[in-house]
Design brief:
127 residues, alpha+beta
Amino acid sequence: MPYHLDDTHPFFRRSVSDCQRRNKRRAADSDVQAIYPLLKRGQIAGGRLVKRVESWEMYKIRIADSSTNKGKSSGYRLIYALNRPEKRVVLLFLYHKKDLADVDVDALLQETRSYLEERENTNNETS
């Protein structure tokens, strides 16, 4: 059964816009969309981060920047959350290695926790 992919997280959408705005030649959105089929199949991509939010596992994957010829090592970093029991993937944050060497995982986890709780409350109200 395929996984549900959620790329509507406001933090994620904002980070994609920031990547595109910083350097107009970058096709951040299309570069990220290239890995959607992999994530929808539930295949784990990237390295697992130590921190978790309840049943959500956090991963960081390297993605090549198609506007350069430097490969994944100099490209984008995508942080996403995977919930295996519910078969859901939520894209959380995108950044370019050139722009940001590392990300504050604790702040991202707090943002993610709030987002997931809000989504859960919305789903419970509609059920």
